[in-house]
């Protein structure tokens, strides 16, 4: 896989013809993603390309391991020609995440199906960034060890301000990171792989995953609230991420929403994060058996600390623990106040509660719209739909992998033909 | 002037050629706006159009009263050909505003120069909407009575939720208006004019005026805070207005920023508007001689009530009136808190304080950035530039007129040839 300009292996000889062909490869591949498997004849009819061109394009996509010929399905018996479908075998797109208390990796095949997923508890805030990244590289290796498909890219999510073009994390306060060259380091650790390694903010990537999961209309506006130790948001306006002047858009955790309240990690008082972050909940409803992750925790721990703690809180709430229920009610109150501020300012088509907020669903879903109504000026909260994320804590890795897939759908020639590496091996 | 498809008077005969010509008319007219007067030869060189085409396009633009031949300027003596410049005589674009306590009209010529301006104090909240609109129509007539140029459109600004496509004000709580068909009514009162009558939210139009006044980069993000009785904002993201799901984006006056505070006109407690609106200032620093506008106030009142009140407050603050200074300090505090929330969420390139906030500049400008720093997570408030609006209360009418001009620059054939009405009169 490469990033630069590419000559297609078949097709026209001029630059213009090559550009048109690349575009048409994208049209056919995206059509199969958006409309499902179908015959060459149907692809030609629906895309407006002629049949000979479609056959040639499909041949190239097969060659690159992006589509395959499936058996004729029962439902379509009698239709002429074989069914072309997205290939689920040859390529994978990888999302990775570094966050407070855990590392996470997820790989999607071209059909958007999860083919690998690993997460480990790790006290990322206590370890040196270089050690954290070394563990992430090993996790990437181990997650992909049983996967025969070729990676076509890795996108890394970090909770903080990133510089996408240089691949440097400028500031991730909850990790204690400043100016860490994540992309350069991971690329080195992976042995300078032939695929791209990208970097973005975790809330931004999670918001993109949510656009897909919620089926947001093209050009729509969405706010995803993410919450663990920190609280942030990924904001999509007109179908595109809102990044702002220096990439700080969506730093809603530090909106000042109250006069008092517990001190925030940022040193201020009154921050939304201090009122609704996971630490606020844990402080108000301390655990029965305090347990903390440590750098020495066994790496094969199957259940990250975060989810264990949430499960504990959920069990106690379900059992009617007054202290836990009161703590959740307090989170709910401030969550609605902050969400109301954002809905007043953005009037988004969709507000999605993600991260640990989604785990509070059983206790807050019932009253949420009614409470929001109290804080939003527009009648019936301005038509904003409220949803809970179905993605748990996998939003950032899923969004990262989706971004990588999106690159492939936009320009399929970024993926080298399948047999090339094998052929080279054979000649050695 | 008309809105529908138009055949150019010269040029190609097919639909495609007509489209290309309309586009090229826009290119030439916009080039003159953006780069100033210049010769046909230079226009051709800079736009890439051939000289014969430019001559034909210029002839049509002259015909429509949009450009004229100026004298050759001293600085350019020796250059071949005459200088073409935007016409300042033949057409005007009109902005109008209905707001609490006043009506306002402003007309710009094609060069963006103010050619007419009128404002009257009127107790718009006490009068029937139909009477307010009748007064607005008369104000439009009287403002344009000495103007010989033809209006090419009127844009009406209202503080509330408008439906641009139907021309109906859905809800303007500070005026007490619900479902008022403003465009239909004004069009009727003006005798169904040949030019379009448009409607938009006042903060939105003021934000567009600010994009121009502040020289915001193309594709930049800007938040304009407007304040009088109500507090609102116009938000520009990527160079375009953020409208949201139902047009309610920017309703920041009702962000809940505090637990207590005075009750808001909307019935809630803790709204930003109740903390920083003009009424909060006036309540904390009551006037020496209470004076209220009434529907029976003489219409030739040269100075609307709002500006008189602000001047009074300014004088007392300058004289060191402790009560007024304390009231301003309190406004300043809550203004910075609310602005900090928005800067955290949007990280805009530019935050503009408009409306009556701009009148507080002498007392708040010095400390504003420093105070904002205390409420914004990103280092040095994320690179957001803070500015005060230079437009006073004329932002909405100026933005409205600019929107009308923008339509003309985008499609000059919307403006009928100049001599057409005269020729028709002669044949009568």
Features:
homodimer; 428 residues; alpha/beta; Arc Repressor Mutant, subunit A; Nucleotidyltransferase, domain 5; 3 domains; 5-stranded mixed β-sheet; 39% helix; 20% strand; globular; Putative NBD/HSP70 family sugar kinase (chains A, B); kinase (chains A, B); WH_DNA-bd_sf (chains A, B); DNA-binding transcription factor activity (chains A, B); WH-like_DNA-bd_sf (chains A, B)
Characterization of the model:
Chains A, B: It comes from Saccharothrix texasensis. Chains A, B: Pfam families: MarR_2, ROK. 2 copies of one chain form a homodimer. With 428 residues, chain A is an alpha/beta fold. Chain A folds into 3 domains: 15-86, Orthogonal Bundle (Arc Repressor Mutant, subunit A); 91-205 and 395-427, Nucleotidyltransferase, domain 5 (2-Layer Sandwich), CATH 3.30.420.40; 215-391, Nucleotidyltransferase, domain 5, CATH 3.30.420.40. Helix content of chain A is 39%, strand content 20%. Chain A is built from 13 helices and 16 strands. Chain A has helices spanning 15-35, 40-47, 51-63, 129-143, 182-189, 202-213, 272-276, 278-284, 305-318, 322-346, 361-375, 395-410, 419-427, and strands at residues 38-39, 67-70, 83-86, 91-99, 102-109, 114-121, 150-158, 161-163, 168-172, 177-180, 197-201, 222-227, 231-237, 240-241, 350-353, 385-388. Chain A has a 5-stranded mixed sheet. In chain A, strands 14-13-12-15-16 form a 5-stranded mixed sheet, sandwiched between helices. In chain A, strands 1-3-2 form a 3-stranded antiparallel sheet. In chain A, a hairpin with a 2-residue loop joins strand 4 and strand 5. Residues 1-13, 290-302 and 421-428 of chain A have low confidence and may be disordered. At the A-B interface, strand 13 and helix 10 of A face strand 13 and helix 10 of B.
């Amino acid at each position: 896989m490469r990033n630069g300009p590419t000559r297609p292996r078949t097709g026209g000889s001029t630059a213009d013809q090559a550009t048109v062909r690349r575009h048409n490869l994208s049209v056919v591949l995206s059509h199969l993603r958006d409309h499902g498997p179908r015959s060459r004849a149907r692809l030609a009819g629906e895309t407006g390309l002629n049949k000979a061109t479609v056959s040639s394009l499909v041949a190239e996509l097969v060659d690159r391991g992006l589509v395959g010929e499936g058996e004729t399905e029962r439902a379509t018996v009698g239709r002429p020609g074989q069914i072309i479908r997205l290939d689920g075998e040859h390529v994978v797109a990888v999302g990775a995440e570094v966050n407070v208390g855990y590392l996470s990796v997820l790989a999607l095949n071209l059909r958007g199906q999860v083919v690998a997923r690993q997460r480990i508890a790790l006290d990322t805030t206590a370890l040196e960034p270089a050690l954290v990244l070394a563990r992430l590289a090993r996790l990437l290796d181990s997650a992909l060890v049983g996967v025969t498909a070729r990676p076509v890219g890795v996108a890394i999510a970090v909770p903080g301000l990133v510089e996408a073009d240089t691949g440097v994390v400028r500031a991730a306060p909850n990790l204690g990171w400043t100016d860490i060259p994540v992309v350069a380091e991971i690329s080195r650790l992976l042995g300078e792989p032939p695929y791209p390694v990208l970097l973005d903010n975790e809330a931004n990537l999670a918001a993109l995953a949510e656009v897909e999961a919620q089926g947001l209309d093209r050009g729509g506006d969405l706010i995803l609230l993410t919450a663990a130790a920190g609280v942030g948001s990924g904001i999509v306006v007109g179908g595109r991420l809102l990044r702002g002047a220096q990439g700080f858009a969506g730093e809603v955790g530090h909106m000042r929403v109250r006069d008092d309240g517990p001190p925030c990690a940022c040193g201020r008082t009154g921050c939304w994060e201090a009122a609704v972050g996971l630490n606020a909940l844990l402080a108000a409803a301390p655990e029965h058996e305090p347990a903390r992750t440590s750098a020495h925790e066994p790496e094969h721990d199957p259940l990250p600390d975060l989810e264990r703690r949430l499960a504990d809180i959920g069990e106690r709430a379900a059992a009617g623990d007054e202290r836990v229920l009161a703590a959740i009610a307090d989170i709910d109150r401030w969550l609605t106040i902050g969400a109301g501020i954002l809905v007043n300012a953005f009037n988004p088509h969709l507000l999605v509660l993600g991260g640990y907020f989604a785990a509070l669903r059983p206790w807050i879903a019932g009253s949420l719209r009614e409470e929001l109504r109290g804080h939003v000026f527009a009648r019936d909260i301005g038509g904003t739909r409220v949803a809970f994320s179905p993605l748990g804590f996998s939003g950032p890795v899923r969004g990262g992998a989706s971004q990588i897939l999106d690159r492939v759908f936009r320009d399929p020639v970024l993926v080298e033909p399948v047999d090339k590496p094998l052929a080279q091996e054979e000649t050695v």
